[in-house]
Amino acid sequence: MKRSWIVINLVALIVLAALACAKAPQDDIGAAQAEMDKANQAHADTWAPTEYAAAKEAMDAATAEIAAQDGKWMKNYDKGKELLAKAKENAAKATEVAAANREQTKKDAEAGLAAADTAIQAAEAALKTAPQTKDSKADLALMKNDLATLRATLDQARQSFSSEDYKRALDSAGSVKDKAASITDQVAAAKKKRSAPVKKK
Amino acid sequence: MESAKEAGGAVRAPAVCSAAQSALARAEAELRVQSRRSFLLRDYGEARTLASQALIAAQSCDLHARIVRDQWRARSAAALQDLAAWIERATGIARHVPGGEGVKEGLLRAEVTLGEGRNSFDAAQYERALEAADRGKAQIDATIGSIRGFIDRFEASPRRATWKRWVVDTLRESRRLRRPVILVDKLRRQLLLLQGDDEIASYAVDLGAGGIDSKVRAGDEATPEGRYQVTEVRGPGQTRFYRALMLDYPNSEDRARFRRLRRAGRVEPGSEIGGDIEIHGKGGRGQDWTLGCVALEDDDMDDLVPRIRVGTPVTIVGMIPEGVLP
To answer: What is the ipTM of this complex?
Structure first.
């Protein structure tokens, strides 16, 4: 009987020692942090803000939980590990969503810039064939200047694209395209006006 | 949380939504911890509490995100509307400024920025829409500054005294002869019909495409400045521009000035002084497009022409100085 008690106490002591000496899950922390780093590199805070926030909060909660367990004599990192697993999972998702969103916006912006360029070219072509009369001459000169301004604005949109501000490039290109299309319409209207020879005054 | 995501909670209400995300992560972690335990040791009490906290926090996140989103939407809509109104006002006064001052380019840039802002707004990117509206407002402010600068320079023109004398003499003539006179204010793009001290009518006009300066030679597309008379009244079928009042440009003063400038070498050799300056119809375009004539809307010509006869004085000035009119 006495021997049994000794064995039980010894086992309990070993279990307690094991709990007290439990080490922080460094591998899990490293793995979760690595996924967070990937999400940061993918600018997930910009391109997938909700998913990134979920990852960050899980990571912060894991860090807080592990720190709380570190201060205890009886350590239990189970919850911390689960939070790290969640942070890793969320970070991976944020990276994936960010890459997809960024790529889609980039494609949209590329298409928008190309469409704006096409619209300007169409307006320039229309302008070249528009008859110059007293009625239309000033209008056409104004439209030519407007197209030059639109070209300059489109160049700025391209700069936004180069600096990876795809959303701005997309919205700006859309606006340039609309303006260029309205100039094409105005040229068509000017063409309809009766042509008359320009006379010096 | 999905509802809050749609309202952009992570960006628009980060503090409240962070708390919700944190509560949700802790609830899920606790649930996983308990589900791994032996069924005899499982206790979902904490998981349940955390899940309740997460639900309340998520609802709060959603509510805050929607409130903030609606605030951004209202602010950006108001800013875009304000910018559109400023562009319209600036376009109105930009008519007084000739090309080459960068005003028209500034207006177009602001219009493109407005379009960019509207595109952002349509995509529910209200913060970007507001930023575009602010950028457009800065562009329009700079443009209005250019317009004001031009008008200030114009008002300080050395020809101001001459314009004043012409207007005073024209009004005196109208009072003496008791007949209507026409005054054209080039800066304001306005034609006034006066008799003595009474303004009978006022019309908006389009001028020559060659700029605000006075006509010097044929082909410069500028509207002349001086004291003229109507030499002929042309009705429909007699002019390409609906109705026309032919003027006696060049007068003796114009010819003397032309000779002076030619002697000084300020007019290209072989240049002529030009002619056929009219007040005619087909105007109302809101821009200067004629070869030097003064163009009114056809309806305005219908209103003006019956009051005019051959010999009616027409005085065209850069601007009518303040305090000269009765």
So the answer is: 0.77
